[in-house]
């Protein structure tokens, strides 16, 4: 028996991902050494990080999660505005926020968090901020001034809008020095 590192996410449209990928390419041209930039195929908005689940429990977990998630209605998602955790002035993580659709994702995250407690999984998400991570400052590094200035210049960037009608339960593994995500279940939002 092995454990599977699991998270639940919403994936944006190809158009939004391409828009964000072009922005990331622009930032990476300024700095590749101190930042781990997120590749196009890994862009997503995490609703909840679940943690490790024994592989034998995955089918039951996905079935139980479906009963919670499918109750939500589809919604419109607009991503835009660059920011950072803990702040844009001194970021460890760079991200694009949910300008529209954030309330819907917050509600989903709250319900998923309750569900995860029943499974004794996940973390409390009292400070949930719907966002798409685009880069992480490497351990021991600082965000370089020229990159900070460029990010600040694009702080009002509009990445676009899309219709969200499903959530995905994904596995996360590390291969070739980077995370690889694979869908384990796709759950339609039915309301």
Structure commentary:
With 191 residues, the protein is an alpha+beta fold. The protein has a single domain (3-188), classed as Cyclic Phosphodiesterase, Chain: A (Alpha-Beta Complex). The chain has 4 helices and 9 strands, in the order βαββαββαβαβββ. It has helices at 14-30, 58-69, 102-118, 145-153; strands at residues 3-10, 35-37, 45-54, 75-85, 93-100, 131-137, 158-164, 166-175, 178-188. The strands form 2 sheets. A 5-stranded antiparallel sheet has the order 2-6-5-4-7, with helices on both faces. A hairpin with a 2-residue loop joins β8 and β9. α2 (58-69) packs across α3. The chain is globular, with a radius of gyration of 17 Å. The N and C termini lie far apart (36 Å).
Summarize this, please?
29% of the residues lie in helices and 39% in strands. The protein is an alpha+beta fold and 191 residues long.
Largest sheet at a glance?
A: 5 strands, antiparallel
Radius of gyration, Cα only, in angstroms? Answer: 17 Å
**Stretches with pLDDT under 50, minimum 5 residues:** none
Write out the strand line-up for the largest beta sheet, numbering strands in chain order: 2-6-5-4-7
The amount of beta strand, in percent, is 35-45%
Write a concise keyword list for the protein shown above.
191 residues; alpha+beta; Cyclic Phosphodiesterase, Chain: A; 5-stranded antiparallel sheet; 4-stranded antiparallel sheet; 9 strands
